[in-house]
Design a protein that fits this description.
Elements: E1 15-21, E2 24-30, H1 36-43, E3 62-65, E4 68-71, E5 84-86, H2 88-91, H3 99-106, H4 116-131, H5 150-156, H6 167-186
Parallel strand pairs: 1-5
Antiparallel strand pairs: 1-2, 3-4, 3-5
Domain 2Fe-2S ferredoxin-type: 15-91
Keywords: Iron, Metal-binding, Oxidoreductase
Organism: Deinococcus piscis
């Protein structure tokens, strides 16, 4: 009688994972190797997230995970258990677009549109990083909050490729939204008034 080799430890075929995607909570049993990108597209039918290179080089799959921009093709879904994932289609509605979505339309910031959802998510995350004072490679003084200018926008968006070459219009769209956010942040907050009856 032959000795059978020890198969080694057994691992679960699927892991229970919970994700909130565009405000809707999902309980899933996933292969531990499943990426956030494949989970969104193949399991949840969220098609705004695009698979471009599948190697983290093009940015087409960019989403916001707990408010931070990530390349979903490089993220294991198991590592994002409990996370809030926001895609471009979750930023606004058809009747009320997110300001970044509207700016991309107004400035014609797309041609074929394949990279656009990732560009929009990256732009929203990038403006938040800028507002938090995170410097970039081109920030002149890392001790100060960077000024929103074209060089900062280009550097911070350099991970998102547009094969059609709509970069000039993408930068214009992001600049408009960023300047609008800066202007609204500079406005004084309304004073709460006591309500009497």
């Amino acid at each position: 009688m032959k000795d059978t080799p020890d198969p080694g430890p057994t691992f679960p075929i699927a892991l229970p994972i919970q994700l909130a995607v565009n405000g809707k909570r999902h309980q899933l049993d996933l292969d531990p190797r499943a990426s956030v990108l494949d989970t969104l597209r193949d399991r949840l039918g969220v098609m705004s997230v695009k698979k471009g290179c599948d190697h983290g080089q093009c940015g087409a799959c960019t989403v916001l995970a707990d408010g931070k921009r990530v390349l979903s093709c490089l993220c294991l879904a198991a590592s994002y258990d409990g996370a809030d994932i926001l895609t471009a289609e979750g930023l606004g509605t058809v009747d009320q677009l997110h300001p970044m979505q509207q700016a991309f339309l107004d400035h014609d910031g797309f041609q074929c549109g394949y990279c656009t959802p990732g560009q929009i998510c990256s732009a929203v995350g990038m403006l938040d990083e800028l507002a938090q004072g995170m410097p970039s490679h081109v920030t002149p003084d890392v001790r100060k909050v960077a000024e929103l200018n074209d060089a900062e926008i280009r550097e911070r968006m350099s991970g998102n490729l547009c094969r059609c070459g709509a970069y000039v219009n993408i930068v214009s769209a992001i600049r408009e939204v960023g300047q609008g956010q800066a202007a609204s942040a500079a406005l004084p907050m309304p004073v709460a008034r006591e309500v009497t009856r």
